[in-house]
Design goal:
The longest helix has about 50 residues. The strands form two sheets. This protein has a seven-stranded parallel β-sheet, sandwiched between helices. The chain has a six-stranded parallel β-sheet with strand order 10-9-8-11-12-13, sandwiched between helices. α3 packs antiparallel against α4 and α4 packs antiparallel against α17. The protein is globular and about 65 Å long. About 45% of the residues lie in helices and about 10% in strands. β12, α12 and β13 form a beta-alpha-beta unit. By secondary structure, the protein is an alpha/beta fold.
């Protein structure tokens, strides 16, 4: 009998899932297929999930109420963020932490948008402790690329997790932390129903269509793309922003960047003429129709530490669909775009350079065809069965962790205690901010009511 594997997904599971749900679902299918005798359970936080038609794994819901029961019934637990109250099972279970983003830098960017002053400091301290706790929990760590892996190895060394015993057992540390990139859809692209040309208002049959594949959040730069299109002044080029509010992630809703992008497009006279926005989140199944129908894709972002350690999962569907694309330099996949000629890489916040790149990729059909051929050649290495081999190997081998649990128990105990304290401090700031907003709203209502008699007079 094989291992009982539990995957705890913190993202939305179902038809409208984004990268976390897509990754967790792919892991469930790959492990069920390749780990001998495995019984796989995929657990999400939303209620409207569906069971897979072929029944190769089971989907359920997890919450604070049933998490301990779920963990007790499985041998291997996989999650990007393990809840601290499963620590009681630490000596008896095998834990995999899937850090497919460099969360320290991502959360720094999220905090910049949502918090300020001491409240932001409390947020950063809490999130830093969360990461320390996850790394100490982990019997095996996954990252999405080698640059992320290097950064997490550094964190593990600073936490004292790489002892002489661990290093002597495996000087490469691949049995402790390895890279597992985001994979592509298993099916080949096939023609399907149109969703844009001649179907959606504003998109003509002969238009050149650009897709912004995903949402618009703190570290993305749609303003540079809108300015590049203003420079080009071509009515035959249509841009569609494919995503707005992320499903099931309230912190990544229609934030400042999204609202600014709509305001800029309206000010430029582009909105609903040459620039269009999907207000919700297109389903995973329908999203592939958009990228198949587009001519190119563009994604602009800022060259900062979030970019340096990122793995732009929104590029994966572009590779699958053989859709040439333009991106900003600075991250791992941008280097692959340049090396493999999947498209064009441009400097950050440089609208003229982006405008030239758009014209080249749209109008130079020979170059466009060469990019498509190079993307097609990369498909085999990005299948989930290939990218998840480190996870398959770990789950298939009933060996003890490279890092003995007894070495990590003191650090884990300390970090859970620190996390509880820092979470309490953060929640106090959160409640204080909420009360302040409520007072401000009450004062605004009173002022509005007080002004009405004067207005009517």
């Amino acid at each position: 009998m094989g291992p009982r594997i539990l995957i705890l997904c913190r993202g939305y599971l179902g038809s409208h899932m984004s990268a976390p749900g897509i990754r967790a679902t792919a892991q469930a299918r790959v492990l069920a297929r390749h780990v001998p005798g495995a019984k796989v359970t995929l657990a999400g936080t939303n209620l409207d999930f569906e069971q897979p038609e072929d029944g190769v794994y089971t989907v359920t819901r997890w919450s604070a109420r049933n998490i301990l029961q779920l963990v007790a019934g499985h041998d291997i637990i996989i999650s990007s963020m393990l809840p601290p109250h499963v620590a009681g099972f630490f000596p008896f279970k095998r834990f995999v932490v899937d850090l497919f983003s460099q969360y320290a830098m991502e959360w720094m960017e999220v905090g910049m948008q949502h918090y300020e002053g001491r409240h932001r400091r409390a947020w950063v301290e809490r999130t830093r402790t969360v990461l320390s706790m996850q790394l100490t929990f982990a019997d095996f760590v996954l990252t999405c690329n080698e640059r992320q892996r290097d950064s997490y190895v550094g964190m593990m060394i600073s936490l004292g997790l790489i002892s002489p015993r661990v290093y002597d057992a495996d000087p490469t540390l691949r049995r402790y932390i390895d890279s597992a990139p985001h994979g592509i859809r298993p099916e080949l692209p096939e023609p399907g129903p149109r969703v844009l040309r001649g179907v959606r208002e504003g998109f003509a049959e002969d238009d050149r269509i650009i897709i912004w594949n995903g949402g618009i959040i703190q570290w993305y730069d749609p303003a540079t793309l809108l300015e590049a299109l203003r420079i080009l002044r071509r009515d035959d080029i249509k841009l569609l922003f494919l995503g707005a509010a992320y499903p099931g992630i309230k912190e990544l809703g229609k934030g400042v960047r999204f609202q600014d992008a709509k305001a800029i497009a309206e000010r430029n006279g582009q909105l609903d003429r040459t620039v269009f926005f999907e207000e919700g989140w297109v389903s995973h199944e329908v999203a592939k129709r958009y990228v198949q129908e587009a001519d190119i894709s563009v994604c602009c972002y800022f060259d900062n530490l979030e970019t340096r350690y990122s793995h732009r999962t929104r590029f994966v569907d572009l590779i699958w669909a053989e859709l040439p694309f333009i991106c900003t330099h600075g991250d791992v996949l941008a280097e692959e775009v340049a090396q493999n000629t999947w498209g064009v890489v441009v400097p950050e916040e440089d609208p003229p350079a982006l405008a030239r790149a758009i014209e080249k990729l749209i109008d130079d059909r020979d170059f466009h065809a060469r990019c498509k051929a190079n993307l097609a050649a990369s498909r085999a290495s990005l299948q989930w069965d290939e990218t998840m081999k480190p996870l398959i190997d770990f789950c298939s081998q009933p060996e003890a962790s490279l890092s003995p649990k007894w070495e990590r128990i003191p650090g884990l105990t300390q970090r859970i205690g620190t996390y509880v304290g820092r979470r309490t401090v953060f929640n106090l700031y959160d409640r204080g901010l909420k009360r302040r907003h409520e007072r401000e709203e009450a004062l605004e209502r009173r002022a509005s009511l007080a002004a009405r008699p004067a207005e009517s007079g």
